[in-house]
Amino acid sequence: MTDDPEGILLDPEKPDQDNTQAPQSQKMGIAFYGALVLVGMLVFLIVFMNVPGIRASAGILLTRNTWTLQSYLDPGGVLVPAITGSPTTARFGTDGKVSGSAGCNHYIANYTLGDLAISISPPEMTERYCENHTVVQQESVYFSDLTKAVEFRVNKSNLYLYDTSGKPVLVFEIP
């Protein structure tokens, strides 16, 4: 074996020996990118493989609170603030029923969940007389918007119901 000036040991009896050696910085680069790929895979697994946990906790948050309407989609397609003074509420029970006050009348409807999808049947309601015409209009639109909901998102303080186009139709908050 002979000593190369660059510090590489050469074996004269092995002429086909690869006498090139990767520089130290290149070796570090490979290790760095390998570690980066592993970290990326770990993040991917945490984010995308935990989706069932997110869905399960969404259902729990949905049924844990009585929600108060914050805004709704008016007939013109604009999200408008709910009328104050006559709260509209929704309580999603673990029995598949949603109930509450729509401002003047109380209501109850069936609902089903699937992952983050929701389907709400047309509600049955009391038939109380309401003098405030604006509340009556909001109540009518609210019942219509409830049945348009196909998807929901929930966090600790807000519930969002979306229609088929992905537009929010009802936004609730915890009072």
Protein architecture, described:
By secondary structure, this protein is an alpha+beta fold. It has a domain at about 55-175: Lipocalin (Beta Barrel). The protein has helices spanning about 25-50, 50-65, 135-150, and strands at about 1-5, 10, 65-75, 80, 90, 95-100, 105-115, 115-120, 125, 150-155, 160, 170-175. Mean pLDDT is about 85; it is low at about 50-55.
Multimeric state: single chain
The largest sheet, given as strand count, sense and whether it forms a barrel, is: 10 strands, antiparallel
CATH fold type of the domain at 54-173: Lipocalin
Radius of gyration: 30 Å
Q: Using DSSP, what is the number of strands?
A: 12
**Uncertain residue ranges:** 49-56
CATH class of the domain at 54-173: Mainly Beta
What spatial form do the alpha-carbon principal axes imply?
elongated
- What is the tally of helical segments? 3
- Please identify, by name, the CATH architecture of the domain at 54-173: Beta Barrel
Question: Which structural class should the secondary elements be placed in?
Answer: alpha+beta
How much helicity do the residues have?
A: 25-40%
The H-and-E topology, N to C, reads as EEHHEEEEEEEHEEE
Mean pLDDT: 83
Strand content: 25-35%
Distance between the termini: 83 Å
